[in-house]
Design brief:
Blueprint (H helix, E strand, L loop, with lengths): L8 E4 L4 H9 L7 E3 L11 H9 L5 E6 L11 H8 L5 E5 L24 E5 L11 E5 L2 H8 L28 H36 L3 E3 L7 E6 L6 H14 L5 E5 L2 E7 L7 H13 L2
Parallel strand pairs: 1-2, 1-3, 3-4, 4-5
Antiparallel strand pairs: 5-6, 7-8, 8-10, 9-10
Helix pairs in contact: 5-7
């Protein structure tokens, strides 16, 4: 419910679970998030319905847009949402944990067109940068505001105007040098190297999705846009326990690993391909495992 009884709205189409956790930690409350319906057979927000909701709000508001949803890597129309910012007063946060890296690929960069309309953006490094799990990046147009919120004032600490130590801009005072592995890998591979990894991963996901689409054992639940394949067992009735049981047998086999999920209420299987080493031979191994294990 939140601890401050704030008259505050957060709007999103397909919010990641971390959004609800953040709202709870901030004291705003999980119930402050108002879900806006998505486009038919999509996880992308219906911008017309978003505008209808904004028209009815006369209090502070955050819109959380997606640049790559966790189940299907679907993208909200960031250009259209940016146009709404000209008409309505809201903070636009873009969750680009997966999809932000689309900007590196000529084939996929159109998905993130309009991302610069955001007030803030988050991107995970532990996915496509292939660096340790707690590596992530946050970008903001409002550096001075961020400093006001998080500044750690003490005589022995540096002046943020002279030395921009990150403890002045984040909740943590003590933090390890998380940026170092990310910097190393960016120096090693560069823009062209990561564009190749991204395009290869997406091609491998498409290869798996194409096979699933023709399979008599599985149903593809969503088009493969980038690197995630969302599918389920082709049965008249399917439960989440069925999915978990099947994935347990897959895991015990040891050739491939999937995670369970729910896609629009349907128990499903999620294959996320982001490792820099994944090749076509790995997809063939995956297909063989899916064929053989019941």
């Amino acid at each position: 419910e939140g601890v401050f009884n704030l008259n505050f709205k957060v709007l999103s189409g397909t919010a990641h679970s971390s959004i609800f956790k953040s709202l709870s930690m901030l004291g705003i409350g999980r119930n402050s998030l108002q879900k806006i319906d998505t486009l038919e057979n999509r996880e992308a927000i219906d911008v017309d319905l978003l505008e209808m909701a904004l028209k009815q709000i006369n209090t502070p508001c955050i819109v959380i847009a997606n640049a790559g949803t966790v189940n299907t890597v679907d993208f909200d129309d960031l250009v259209a949402i940016g146009e709404l910012k000209k008409k309505y007063n809201f903070w636009l946060h873009v969750d680009a944990a997966f999809g932000g890296f689309a900007a590196l690929s000529e084939k996929h960069a159109h998905y993130v067109k309009g991302i610069n309309n955001a007030d803030s953006i988050t991107i995970d490094g532990h996915k496509w940068l292939n660096v340790p799990y707690d590596s992530a990046m946050q970008f903001s147009k409002h550096k001075k505001l961020q400093l006001k919120v998080f500044q750690n004032s003490a005589a022995y600490l540096g002046d943020p105007d002279v030395s921009p130590d990150y403890f002045h801009y984040t909740p943590e005072n003590s933090r390890r040098f998380r940026a170092l592995p990310a910097w190393f890998t960016l120096m090693a591979y560069g823009r062209e190297g990561y564009a190749e990894i991204i395009e290869r991963n997406c091609a491998m996901a498409k290869l798996l999705g194409d096979w699933i689409e023709t399979s008599d054992k599985f149903t593809l639940l969503s088009p493969v846009r980038m690197n995630v394949v969302c599918f389920t067992l082709k049965r008249k009735e399917i439960s989440f326990d069925d999915i978990k049981g099947y994935l347990a047998r897959i895991r015990e086999d040891g050739r491939v690993f999937f995670t369970p999920t729910l896609y629009k209420g349907v128990p499903a299987i999620r294959a996320a391909i982001s490792n820099w080493q994944t090749q076509e031979k790995d997809i063939q191994i995956t297909i063989e495992a899916l064929k053989e294990i019941d």
